[in-house]
Design goal:
Blueprint: H1 2-38, H2 41-54, E1 64-66, E2 72-74, H3 75-78, E3 83-89, H4 94-107, E4 113-117, H5 123-132, E5 141-142, H6 147-152, E6 159-164, E7 169-174, H7 178-187, E8 195-198, E9 205-207
Parallel strand pairs: 3-4, 4-5
Antiparallel strand pairs: 1-2, 3-6, 6-7, 8-9
Length: 208
């Protein structure tokens, strides 16, 4: 008789658990149905974009990138070094204008910096903005059909990629952050920039 009572109590608890799980499943189904009815296409696209950005970009595609004079060459032909930095630039991007002179100072002389103007940018306007920054000798390329931008999932300017000779992404940096930029220099090419000579934010000097 005691054994039967214990079995009944156990079965009663099992029933309670099953009822709870059933209610939870029903609530989940109902919530999903409501969300599917009320989630707008724009919201769905935003969620999809956010989830896509969570996937890390493994490599930049070796797409054809014409320069400001129309001369085309693939990405990797323009970054023929063990490591290079690719920066996406916009003429109306204030942060780009703040950061790019520092980058040119660190990388420009070595030819390891590639400036990419986003699709839709007027090359004459980009040239004028670079000249205003004192970057008269700095060239740039055009991501004319947004092929590079799409695969790199660019939605913030500036965005920088440290890549190897095969285009594999070693590091990605978004926005203007001098401290993160210093970290990039420390890591670049196994630490060729070994010591900070001046730690001020607006005028960073490095020596190899």
């Amino acid at each position: 008789w005691l054994g039967a009572q214990r079995m009944l109590r156990v079965r009663g608890r099992d029933v309670a658990v099953y009822v709870f799980l059933g209610c939870l499943a029903a609530t989940s189904v109902a919530t999903g149905a409501i969300a599917s009815r009320h989630l707008s296409p724009a919201s769905a696209e935003a969620v999809s974009t956010m989830l896509g950005r969570l996937e890390q970009v493994q490599a930049l595609p070796n797409v054809l990138l014409p320069d400001e004079h129309g001369r085309g060459a693939p990405l990797l032909a323009r970054t023929q070094h063990r490591e290079a930095v690719v920066v996406f630039y916009g003429a109306d991007c204030k942060s780009c204008g703040n950061l790019l002179p520092r980058m040119v100072k660190a990388f420009g002389a070595s030819g390891r910096l590639l400036v990419v103007a986003r699709a839709g940018e007027d090359p004459r306007e980009v040239r004028a903005r670079l000249d205003d920054l004192g970057l008269h000798g700095v060239g740039f390329v055009l991501d004319k059909f947004a092929a590079l931008e799409k695969d790199a999932r660019i939605d913030v300017l500036p965005t920088m990629f440290r890549i190897d000779s095969e285009g594999r992404v070693l590091e990605r940096i978004e926005g203007e952050n001098p401290y993160v930029f210093q970290r990039l220099l420390r890591r670049f090419d196994g630490g060729v920039y070994r010591r900070v000579v001046n730690r001020t934010i607006d005028d960073v000097h490095w020596e190899r």
